[in-house]
Please model this.
Amino acid sequence: MNDVVEIEKGPLRLWLRLLGTANLLAGELGARLRVRHGISLAQFDYLAQLHRSGEADVAMSELGRRLMVTSGNVTGLTDRLERQGFVIRVPHPTDGRAVLAEITDAGRLVVERATADLHDHATSFNADNMHDLCLPKPPRGAKLARVTIGAGLIQDPDGDPNLAQRFAMPR
Model:
């Protein structure tokens, strides 16, 4: 027997749109971090975890848990950040098998500067550039006529949840 499961496409389309938007933002922030600060988004996240922790050093296994990545990923990030002079490895004082990561003064400086830069960039978002990230591009020469929001989800006035806006062509 072949059971067919009916799937409501609206919520799936919304989730896919949200994931796409998150990927666009991550790509934009990653590019900004590389160009302006010489680090990747993953390296920024790693340094920010160390900086925010308030601890002198953090076990690499704990960093993996906080970053939600594998131990191999933490090792690769640590290698690159160590070569850049942003972290150092420190032996664990009581567990000979464990290694701690410690942020250096240079690492603190780069994460503080990058954080300030990303804050300034995030506060510069407005309706125009957020529209470009979140919704389909309007046809050339068109003006946004209406966006309908209902049931907590963005919806198209004609019912297509994948198209959250209506465009009007100038006369």
The chain is about 55% helix and 15% strand.
